[in-house]
Amino acid sequence: MLASGKSLVQTYRAMLRFGTPRQVHIAAVIASPQGVEYVTREVPEATLWVAAIDQGLNDQAYIIPGLGDAGDLSYGSKL
After folding, report:
1. CA angle at 17 for the pair 62 and 50, rounded to the nearest 5°
2. How far is Cα 20 from Cα 17, in angstroms, rounded to an integer?
3. How far apart are alpha carbons 8 and 26 in whole angstroms?
4. C-alpha 15: how far from its chain's center?
5. Distance between CA 40 and CA 79 in Å, rounded?
6. Which residue in 10, 57, 64, 71 has its CB near the most CB atoms, within 10 A?
7. Alpha-carbon span 66 to 55, nearest angstrom
């Protein structure tokens, strides 16, 4: 799941300390339009593969309509 993309970009930048890859492929089953835009802007060398793009993000940066949270919510409400 690619929500805002900020964790992904931060992790990618941390990995660059160990070298620069020849190719970068990022795959997500579900993404938000904001996350796609952010990742393509911040990691332009990457090829981004996304199966579905949902409506967007809510105020807490959760993807709407929230399919990505289904696993979390099956164990109770978020704190």
Report:
1. 35
2. 8
3. 9
4. 16
5. 31
6. 57
7. 9
What are 14's two structure tokens?
Answer: 């941390």
pTM of the model: 0.80
Per-residue buried b or exposed e for 30-67, using 16+ beta carbons within 10 Å of the residue's own CB: bbbebbbebbeeebeebebebeeebeebeeeebbeeee
Long-range contacts of 12-18 (CB under 8 A, 24+ apart): 12/43, 12/46
pLDDT in tens, 9-58: 999 999 999 999 999 999 999 999 999 999 999 999 999 999 999 888 88
The torsion region of residue 76 among left (phi > 0), alpha (psi -120 to 50) and beta comes to: left
